[in-house]
C-alpha cells in the first residue's frame, strides 16, 4: 500500500543531529517515548525522519521536534513539555478542521466526538489521497446524485462525509473501517439510514436503503478520479492476478474474476462437479487461503456462483 507512514523534518545543520540524539541517546529516547514514534537519524543531509503508523502521533512529533530545533534547548524535561504543548495544538487543529468541514457542507446536530473523528481524517491518507478531502468530495457527489434521484439531500451528504470515519480509528480497533465507522455512528445516535450507509458502503452487510449503494458509487467516483490515488500499476495487477490464480487452483472452479479493485473475488464453478453445499464450503476454503497467503488492504469478499443452464431450440 502507498500509505504514508513517515514524515520528514528539515534541520539547520548536521550538528543538530547530535543534539537531538543527546548524551548516550537520552534525548532521542525521551522523544520516542513521549510521542510513540520512531526517529530515524541517518546519513540523509539536513533531515530527520519520523516513522509511525498513527498520523496524529507523527504530526505531534513533527511539531514538537520543529519547536525544539527552533528553540535550541533540547533535554528530556523540555521535550516532554513541548510534546504536551504540541498535543494540545494538534487536538485544536483536529477540532477546527472537523467543525469547518461540517459548516461548509451545511450539516447540523453532529456529536462532538464524531466531529473530532472527522477532523482526524485530515492527517490520514489512503493511497496518498487525503481522506478528509475524499470524504468531502463523496459528500458533495452524494448530495448531487440524491437531488437527481429525489432523495434526502442532507442525509446523503451526511452519509458521504461520515462514510470513512472508521479510518480515524482503524489503527486502534481491529476490523474493516466500514464496520468500525458504522459502530461509532450507532454509538453516537446517528440516523439509522446514515449508520446503515456507512456500514454497507463496501457491502460488509446488506444495505437497507438506497443510500448504501449511493455512497458506494460516490466513493468510487472520488477514488477513481484520475490523479486522486497512486498505486504501482504492476503491484496492483500482480495482486489481482494472484487472487484469480489462487481461486483457479481449487477443483471444480471454471473461472475467477477479481472485481471492485480486488475487494471482491467472484468464482464460477462447474455445476456438475460442485454441489450447493460444496459451494458454501469452497467459499470458506478460498477465503482462508487468501487470508493466509496474500497481503492486501481491508477485506476481500469471496463469492462462489454455481448455476445450471438448460437450453433447447424449437425448430
Can you tell me about this structure?
- By secondary structure, the protein is mainly alpha-helical.
- 54% of the residues lie in helices and 11% in strands.
- It contains twelve helices and eight strands.
- The termini are far apart.
Any key phrases for this structure?
315 residues; 54% helix; Hypothetical protein af1432; single chain; 3 domains; three-stranded antiparallel β-sheet; Ribosomal Protein S8, Chain: A, domain 1; Alpha-Beta Plaits; three-stranded mixed β-sheet; mainly alpha
> Which overall shape is indicated by the principal axes computed on the Cα atoms?
globular
Structural class from helices and strands? mainly alpha
Oligomer: single chain
Query: Order of helices and strands, N to C?
Result: EHHEEHHHEEHHHHHHEEHE
Q: What is the arithmetic mean of pLDDT?
A: 86
Q: What does this entry show, briefly?
A:
The chain has 315 residues and is mainly α.
Topology record:
Blueprint: E1 6-10, H1 15-21, H2 26-35, E2 38-40, E3 47-51, H3 55-71, H4 76-105, H5 112-120, E4 125-126, E5 129-130, H6 131-149, H7 153-162, H8 177-187, H9 192-200, H10 211-224, H11 233-248, E6 253-259, E7 264-269, H12 276-293, E8 301-306
Parallel strand pairs: 7-8
Antiparallel strand pairs: 1-3, 2-3, 4-5, 6-7
